[in-house]
Design a protein that fits this description.
alpha+beta; Rossmann fold; four-stranded mixed β-sheet
Length: 285
C-alpha cells in the first residue's frame, strides 16, 4: 500500500555542490523505479529543501512529472520539525503521491498554530552532559562572520554552533562528531562575546571556556530517538546515522496522517501550498 524512503541528500544539500542527476550518489531514479515496480497506492519521499532550490528545481520538477506519468497525484511541502514536537530547527522536503486523490500533510501539533508551544533544547538536554561528548575543542574564529543572534553565524571554529537552551536546537548534522558538532555554552560566553563583537571589539583567541560538544546520546535525544536506542559502528558512524535520520516524532506524525487518510479520517489534515511556503521565506531560514 505504501512505499516510503529518503534517497541520499548529498546531491541536493545546500552545503554541497548540488549536482543532482550527474552526482553518482543520486538515488532518486531508484526510488522512482521502486514505486513503478511495486505499484503502491501511496508513496512518501523525503529529502533536503535544497532539492527545490533554483539550481536543482528543474530536476525536481522532472521527477514529479515521472510520478504523474505513473498515475500519481502529487503534493509536496517543506515541513518544520518543531511543528511536530521535535526540539530542533530541522526543515525537510516531503513528497506525497496517491493514485486516487490528493494527500495532505498533518496539522502542526506544536507552535503558534497549535495549543502547545514549540519544544526547546533545555527540555531534553542541559549543561550536565549525557553520554560521552567528543573532545574536539571549541575555539574562537580568527575572522568571525556575525549575525543578529549570538547563536548564529560563524564566530567559532568549524560548523558547530552554540545552542540556545531556550529555543529549538540547530539541525543535527550527519557530519557531527568533530568540529561540526554543536556545543553547549556552560559559562554563558556566547551572548557576551557576540555583544563584544557587535560593539566593534576585536576577535578573541584560544579555546572557549566551558564549551562542550554534544554527545551521540544528546544528538539522538534531540532527534527524538528513545534514550535506549542503540546505534552500531564507530562514534563517527553513529553521528552520521543520527544526523541522516528523519526525527521519529516527525515521522510518526506523517505516518499517522497517512494512515488516517488511507482509512478516510481527514479531520486532522490541512492542504499545503508548497510554493507559498517558499515565498514566505521559510525554506532557507
Amino acid at each position: 500500500d505504501l512505499v516510503c524512503g529518503g534517497p541520499p541528500c548529498q546531491p541536493f544539500s545546500l552545503g554541497g555542490l548540488r549536482q543532482a542527476d550527474v552526482d553518482n550518489r543520486n538515488m532518486i531514479p531508484e526510488f522512482v523505479r521502486c514505486v513503478r515496480e511495486c505499484e503502491p497506492e501511496m508513496f512518501l519521499m523525503e529529502n533536503v529543501p535544497g532539492l527545490v532550490s533554483k539550481k536543482t528545481r528543474p530536476y525536481f520538477d522532472e521527477t514529479l512529472e515521472k510520478f504523474r506519468r505513473l498515475g500519481f497525484t502529487i503534493n509536496w511541502s517543506i515541513l518544520y520539525a518543531p511543528d511536530y514536537g521535535v526540539p530542533q530547527k530541522r526543515r525537510r522536503l516531503f513528497v506525497l503521491g496517491s493514485r486516487n486523490r490528493m494527500l495532505y500533510f498533518p496539522k502542526a501539533t506544536h507552535g503558534p498554530d497549535a495549543d502547545v508551544p514549540h519544544p526547546v533544547s533545555k527540555d531534553y538536554i542541559s549543561k550536565v552532559p549525557l553520554g560521552d561528548p567528543p573532545n574536539s575543542p571549541v575555539r574562537y574564529a580568527r575572522s568571525p562572520d556575525l549575525r543578529k543572534s549570538p547563536y548564529a553565524g560563524h564566530i567559532y571554529n568549524g560548523g558547530g554552533r552554540p545552542i540556545d537552551l531556550d529555543a529549538p536546537c540547530h539541525t543535527i548534522l550527519a557530519s557531527s562528531g568533530g568540529y561540526k558538532t554543536h556545543w553547549i555554552d556552560t559559562e554563558g560566553i556566547a551572548p557576551r562575546y557576540h555583544a563584544h563583537l557587535m560593539n566593534g571589539g576585536m576577535p578573541w583567541e584560544g579555546k572557549v571556556p566551558g564549551a562542550r560538544r554534544l554527545s551521540t546520546l544528546e544528538c539522538s535525544i534531540i532527534q527524538t530517538f528513545p534514550e535506549e536506542m542503540f546505534f552500531a559502528g564507530t562514534r563517527s558512524s553513529q553521528y552520521t546515522q543520527i544526523g541522516d535520520a528523519v526525527p521519529p516524532r516527525m515521522a510518526a506524525a506523517l505516518a499517522e496522517s497517512l494512515d488516517n487518510q488511507f482509512r478516510g479520517i481527514e479531520s486532522e489534515l490541512k492542504p499545503v501550498d508548497a510554493d507559498a511556503t517558499l515565498l514566505q521565506g521559510r525554506l532557507f531560514v
